[in-house]
Specification:
With about 120 residues, the protein is mainly β. Helices cover about 0% and strands about 50% of the residues. The protein contains no helices and eleven strands. The strands form two sheets. Strands 2, 4, 5, 6, 9, 10 and 11 form a seven-stranded mixed sheet that branches. A four-stranded antiparallel sheet has the order 1-3-8-7, with no helix packed on it.
């Protein structure tokens, strides 16, 4: 069983940056990983993903050019660098992993989920 723990969320002003981390424990071979977010009253949506080989990556259109996903397999850690934050980025951010080398943008393709870390962006 893979266990995921996110950190790095918090309160930021619009235009500022935050960096999220997700540490994985348990068997992790060939896991593609991703970030999803869920705003109050809305469905959970895809943000970014990276495959086991740390490339290629995929981003949602709403974060393309502002967010950067990366991973360090030596430290079992997934990152999400969030720059030029906007109030609409406010959400609970979840780390996810799937038993497959390759990325997916679909929630149903992910096998493991963290508890989430809150990001709040003020205008």
């Amino acid at each position: 069983q893979v266990h995921l723990v996110e950190s790095g969320g918090g309160l930021a002003q619009a235009g500022c940056s935050l960096r999220l981390s997700c540490v994985a424990s348990g068997p992790q071979f060939a896991l593609a990983m991703g970030w999803f977010r869920q705003a109050p009253g809305k469905e959970r949506q895809f943000v970014a993903a990276v495959n086991w080989f740390a490339g290629p990556v995929k981003y949602a259109d709403s974060v393309q050019g502002r967010f950067t996903v990366s991973r360090d397999n030596t430290k079992n850690t997934l990152f999400l660098q969030m720059d030029s934050l906007k109030p609409e980025d406010t959400a609970l951010y979840f780390c996810a992993a799937r038993n497959n080398y390759f990325i997916s943008t679909s929630l149903g393709d992910y096998d493991y989920w963290g508890q989430g870390t809150q990001v709040t962006v003020s205008s």
